[in-house]
Design brief:
heterodimer; A: mainly beta; Immunoglobulin-like; seven-stranded antiparallel sheet; 1 helix; B: mainly beta; Neuraminidase; five-stranded antiparallel sheet
Chain lengths: 260, 333
């Protein structure tokens, strides 16, 4: 009798085990990255930062130094104000689902607003943004390239910035979009020149594989007193071979140029 | 004793728990089987799995744009029954047509710029070229149809979702009757008129449901092509409406504002066209009759492109650009 009981127990166990192996388990699947936003990416006095992943049992942890969050990091309890420049990272955790990838939010301090801008090349007429001053209007664009805060070029972008008087320029940062699914690639280089200093050129590493849609920037150190500067941004000639759009022209989408 | 003393085991975030995935909300929740229908990629390959239907014999018919076997037919357990079709490089839309007790298929092919009617075993009945008679098309390349739907009398409608966004109405012989819609953001127009479905849940007032995928809107039209209303689904790139009993099911290709592309999920509306469940995404919630933005919460689906609901209420999810994966089966719980 006891033997039979034990045997039937094993049969039941065997069946259960079989069903379990075909059904997907929570620990096999990761959470989505938290959705992160701020009232503005450029801080005048302060901005409000929000993170969300609306799923029962999820907790979001974050850091303000760009490092990957762990469950030992600060716990996100709700929207918070920030007045300091920096890189915030957020990660979602759950008792049974795998934790998410990291979402990053970069906040910038407001810079010097140039008194005028003169373009030497034109954006594609479908993506002229809000006009000639879109890149110095102190508003960062989001991830949607159709937003009027983006200016889209299918050729190189060249413009002169005027400050109205001589000013100490520590850095200039050029904001751009990476959205390779929409054929939008990083610039290949940025050249800053002025009668008042030697030309500075910075190369930007080329992508050799798919990358998530994200906002990026390249920061060029200047450290000179200038009244004007020319900015030349080179576009990728051809979409690389690893991409579906290979051989076609790549797009360059820029938003804010922040001068400090 | 040693186990209890070790802090990792008491952590809420240890990965010891083995729990079946259950996705969806309210009345529509599902367990997930990723192994359903998996075949030998060398023998029976798929490229994009675009659409699926269940035929009158209860078989699950999958359409892929792989020209080794454009049609793959399974039983509900995921066993391969047969394959056919090698001439549909842009195989995209698949609709089951029942005529006098016989099954036929309507295939839209955006590379051939055609709609092809076949028998259920793949014999071509007719082919329809671009609708030059509408006066809206100068070349066949402007016509890139994505979906069809069929009325009881055999009339059918074609959505030109990758072309000029017109909806073209034909009789059962494939003769042109009407053309409406077109590209634009007005009520009666579309951006990406990707899917179309004949809605006769209310038999007194039958209508057409058409997705404007890029706009995240389901649009309702009369059978004559008059705009009736827009049903907004913020955040959801809905592919095509699939009516099963009183509910509407949609594959959602992507979450609109996700930072990554493979952010899709599944969406279900009840008979009042209210969203009641979103497997793989946030729980639907309405404030002042406005649906909150929906978005993917778990990385289960990549780019769902169509759903098929079988006679056991289980669902099959076909995916675009998912790395040549076979459909996912969702078992209703």
């Amino acid at each position: 009798m006891r033997l039979i009981l034990i045997m039937s127990f094993f049969v039941v166990l065997g069946c259960t085990k079989k069903t379990e192996t075909t059904l997907l388990q929570e620990k096999e699947i990761a959470l989505a990255q938290p959705k992160v936003s701020s009232t503005s990416a450029i801080i005048d006095s302060s901005v409000v930062v929000t993170a969300a992943l609306k799923l029962d049992g999820v907790e979001i942890f974050y850091t303000d130094d760009g490092s990957d969050p762990t469950t030992e990091s600060k716990k996100y309890e709700g929207p918070f104000a920030s007045s300091s420049e920096g890189i915030y990272t957020f990660k979602a955790f759950h008792p049974s689902w795998k934790s998410s990838k990291v979402s990053t939010l970069k906040l910038y301090k407001k810079g010097i607003v140039p008194s005028s801008i003169k373009w030497h090349t034109s954006p594609n007429n479908a993506y002229e943004g809000l006009g000639t001053s879109t890149v110095i209007n102190q508003e960062k664009a989001g991830l949607n390239f159709r937003s009027k805060q983006w200016v889209g070029f299918d050729s190189i972008a060249v413009a002169d910035l005027y400050f109205g008087k001589k000013m100490f320029v520590e850095t200039i940062s050029i904001g751009y979009l990476v959205d390779v699914a929409s054929w939008i690639f990083p610039p290949t280089s940025v050249r800053i020149s002025s009668d008042e200093m030697d030309t500075i050129e910075m190369e930007i590493p080329r992508l050799n594989q798919q990358k998530p849609k994200a906002l990026h920037d390249v920061q060029v150190p200047i450290g000179k007193e200038l009244s004007a500067m020319r900015i030349e941004i080179m576009n990728l000639d051809q979409i690389p071979d690893w991409h579906d759009g290979k051989g076609n022209k790549a797009w360059l989408f820029m938003d804010e140029w922040i001068v400090k | 004793m040693g186990l209890f003393a070790y802090p990792a085991y008491s952590s809420a975030f240890s990965l010891n728990a083995s729990k079946d995935v259950i996705v969806g909300h309210n009345s529509h929740q599902y367990k997930v089987d990723l192994s359903w229908g998996n075949l030998d990629l060398l023998k029976t390959p798929v490229q994009d799995c675009h659409e699926m239907v269940q035929d009158s014999k209860g078989r699950i018919v999958l359409l892929t744009n792989h020209t080794k076997n454009n049609i793959i037919i399974y039983d509900k357990s995921g066993k391969l029954l047969e394959t056919w079709g090698t001439k549909y490089p842009g195989a995209h839309g698949l609709t089951l047509v029942k005529e006098n007790g016989r099954d036929f298929l309507l295939i839209t092919d955006y590379e051939r710029h055609q709609i092809i009617k076949t028998t259920i075993d793949g014999k071509v009945v007719f082919e329809i070229d671009y609708p030059a008679d509408t006066g809206k098309y100068a070349t066949k390349e402007e016509f890139n149809p994505t979906e069809t739907t069929v009325l009881e009398n055999g009339d059918f409608y074609v959505a030109d979702g990758y072309g000029k966004q017109h909806i073209i109405h034909y009789n059962h012989k494939g003769e042109l009757l009407n053309c409406f819609g077109g590209r634009g953001t007005e009520d009666g127009q579309f951006l990406n008129a990707h899917g179309i479905c004949y809605d006769h849940r209310d038999q007194e007032n039958p209508s057409l449901l058409i997705t404007a995928r890029e706009m995240n809107i389901l649009k309702k039209f009369s059978l004559k092509g008059d705009f009736i209303e827009s049903i907004k689904v913020p955040g959801a790139l809905i592919c095509r409406p699939v009516i099963h009993k009183k509910d509407i099911y949609f594959a959602v290709l992507q979450s609109k504002n996700a930072s990554y592309s493979d952010s899709g999920f599944v969406l279900i509306m009840n008979e009042k066209n209210e969203v009641v469940s979103c497997p793989g995404a946030t729980a639907p919630s309405y404030k002042n009759n406005e649906l909150d933005e929906l978005y993917q919460t778990v990385r289960l689906f990549k780019h769902p492109h169509d759903v098929c609901i079988d006679d056991d209420e289980n669902m099959y999810v076909a995916q675009w650009n998912s790395g040549q994966t076979y459909p996912i089966k969702l078992t209703r719980v």
